[in-house]
Amino acid sequence: MQNNCAVILAAGEGTRMKSGKPKVLAEVLFRPMIDWVLSAVREAGVEDICAVTGHLSELVCNHLDETVQTVLQAQRLGTGHAVIQAKAFIEAHLDGNVLVLNGDAPLMDSETITQALRFHTENGNSATVISACVADPTGYGRMVRDGAGTLERIVEQRDATEAEKKINEVNSGAYWFNCRDLLAAFDEIEAMGRTKKEIYLTDAIEIMLNRLQRADAFPAASSDVILGANDRWQLMELNEIARKKVLKKLMVSGVDIPCTDGVMIAPEVEIANDTQILPNTILLGKTKIASGCVIGPSTRLEDCTVGENSVINASQCERSVIGARASIGPFSHLRAGSRLGDDVHAGNYTEVKNSVIGNGTKISHLTYVGDSDVGSGVNFGCGCATANYDGKHKFRTTVGDDCFIGCDTCLVSPVTLGDRCYVAAGSVVTEDVPANTMAIARSRQSIRRKVRKYHED
């Protein structure tokens, strides 16, 4: 793949999306469509990539990482015109092949790209179109083959005869080109641009066939590779297709999803076998879940790592690490930077933020632990809080092993509790507490008689 490269067409406006961002940044499973395309290209072994941007190009350029080169198509004059903008990029790969594909076709997969390249090189083709057979070809360019089954031409819907309109093999908009042969066709394509309003990559196929160069079509195994989205309804349909593909892959690998209602899992998420995913669960980013877990219902995890046999019920967690046999929720929130050890319990309506929680610690309901380092075997009673912010600066709280924090306790950071401390319920702790001691920080209870006053009429 060293000499091969890819050009991704990402200049479309997508006016029917009615969005303030370019079409290729519309999301499928919470991931921009162009990221799906980039992943497929890289998984196929193609690392040198150029994106042709246009509408709101700065948003696309800012989204792409520095390994992707970009060129601007200032005027959208067709796919052929778009690829010509990447001429210098293609010239740097003269001895290889260039993959051209649409940045808004997120279901194009690496296997199809790889198989099409093998077909392209083994047959010595100047161009190979990736095609697909569909039930309803309306609107797509038809692949017209001769009696021997070789590609004869590509005809657009508007130019097709009644017989050609019945052809169900259509153009996906993705191509492999020999770089030298494509560059040689550019002069003729540019000349077409002086007489035509728009020029297309299918014009390059026509030029090569007229020159008696080999151009053929490779039929993809799935028709999904051609799918894009022009509006929000079609985007929803893409989401549903992608969602089912991800869920099927997981279930085949041994993940238990008894009911798929509301379950949305990003393609990068890794889940081990014998884990159960319950309805209305959303798993995002680079989340990794070990075996034997129960996740959900109504749970959202983003960029989290979960140890084996843990249970997370009706809770939200982001950028956190959760150990084995942990119990989270219901209605808990683990914010970024939280690291929970093994056998930790975070009960109803608890919140943990940027804190390290030791093995076996129990954080009861209605408790907040923020910017804290908590040891093992600690028990937080109901309604406790670490006061970590003084209005200007954040401070940390340190709690040793085997401490007992009574209900309705406030630990005002910076403060340190030694091992095996007890803090009486209702205390506000503002000073360090030595190990093996008990802190009581509240006013002494007093009882007064109730005085009644009687008034005579």
Would you give an account of this structure?
With 457 residues, the protein is an alpha/beta fold. Helices cover 20% and strands 28% of the residues. It contains 9 helices and 40 strands. The strands form 7 sheets. It has a 10-stranded parallel β-sheet with strand order 14-17-20-23-26-29-32-35-38-40, with no helix packed on it. It has a 9-stranded parallel β-sheet with strand order 13-16-19-22-25-28-31-34-37, with no helix packed on it. Strands 5-4-1-6-10-7-11 form a 7-stranded mixed β-sheet. Helix 7 (179-192) crosses helix 8 (201-210). The longest helix has 21 residues, at 232-252. The chain is elongated, with a radius of gyration of 31 Å. The mean pLDDT is 94.
Q: TL;DR?
A:
The chain folds into two domains: 5-226, Spore Coat Polysaccharide Biosynthesis Protein SpsA, Chain A (Alpha-Beta Complex), CATH 3.90.550.10; 249-439, UDP N-Acetylglucosamine Acyltransferase, domain 1 (3 Solenoid), CATH 2.160.10. It contains nine helices and 40 strands.
Keywords:
457 residues, alpha/beta, Spore Coat Polysaccharide Biosynthesis Protein SpsA, Chain A, UDP N-Acetylglucosamine Acyltransferase, domain 1, 2 domains, 10-stranded parallel β-sheet, 9-stranded parallel β-sheet, 9 helices, 40 strands, 20% helix, elongated
CATH topology of the largest domain: Spore Coat Polysaccharide Biosynthesis Protein SpsA, Chain A
Query: Helix- and strand-based class?
Result: alpha/beta
Give the % helix. 10-25%
The largest pleated sheet is described as: 10 strands, parallel
Number of strands: 40
Order of adjacent strands in the largest pleated sheet: 14-17-20-23-26-29-32-35-38-40
| Overall mean confidence score, pLDDT | 94
The name of the CATH superfamily of the largest domain reads Spore Coat Polysaccharide Biosynthesis Protein SpsA, Chain A
Large-scale geometry? elongated
Q: Which consecutive residue ranges, at least 5 long each, have pLDDT under 50?
A: none
